[in-house]
From TrEMBL:
SMART domains: HTH_MARR. It holds the Pfam family MarR_2. It comes from the Bacteria. SUPFAM superfamilies: Winged helix' DNA-binding domain (SSF46785). PROSITE patterns: HTH_MARR_2. Residues 25-161 form the HTH marR-type domain. InterPro entries: HTH_MarR-typ, MarR/SlyA-like, WH-like_DNA-bd_sf, WH_DNA-bd_sf. It comes from Mycobacteroides franklinii. One of its GO terms (biological process) is response to stress. One of its GO terms (molecular function) is DNA-binding transcription factor activity. This is Putative HTH-type transcriptional regulator. Coiled coil: none annotated. Transmembrane segments: none annotated.
Length: 164
């Protein structure tokens, strides 16, 4: 018997109370939110004792292997988040000595971001364990993994197209 997920119940409630609404987006968004929440819970123990929080780690991971100058906009695009969010993370990381921001000769509004040795060290320490946790959590996908990735990439493309 297939499990009934909370988003299905909520969609059914909305359909009963507001039948004119198309609740079908709730299937995809509900599953995405549940997956995101579960992943965050699985990673909580790793970051509970780490020097940085998960969002800060995400920023450092992007910076870790970038060649050449990096600006906040590039990081935001890579992570699919706002520049304001990235700026907040960079400020925290800079205060703790994990990144450096330098004036950009080509654009005074966009500082050049570089990772310090401390930033590199913290990423290199955490990332292998994060990958291990994620690999174990995704092992149940088996042969369907490529299909899931393709579906998620289509979702990202759809959301980007909607964003404009």
């Amino acid at each position: 018997m297939m499990a009934v997920h909370e988003s299905s119940i909520t969609a059914r409630d909305w359909t009963l109370n507001r039948p004119e609404l198309d609740t079908s987006p709730m299937e995809v968004i509900g599953a995405l939110k549940r997956a995101s929440g579960l992943l965050a819970r699985l990673l909580e123990p790793l970051y509970a004792t780490a020097a940085i929080a998960e969002p800060e780690h995400d920023v450092l991971v992007v910076l870790r292997h970038r060649k050449g100058p990096v600006i906040a906009r590039h990081v935001a695009e890579e992570l699919g988040v706002s520049q304001a969010w990235v700026s907040r993370m960079l400020r925290k990381l800079e205060e703790r000595g994990y990144v450096r921001r330098e004036a950009n000769a080509n654009d005074r509004r966009a500082a050049i971001i570089s990772m310090t040795d401390s930033g590199r060290s913290v990423v290199d320490e955490l990332f292998p364990e994060r990958l291990r946790i994620e690999a174990e959590a995704l092992a149940g996908l088996g042969d369907e993994r490529a299909t899931v990735v393709a579906g998620l990439e289509r979702l990202v493309a759809s959301l980007k197209a909607y964003e404009g």
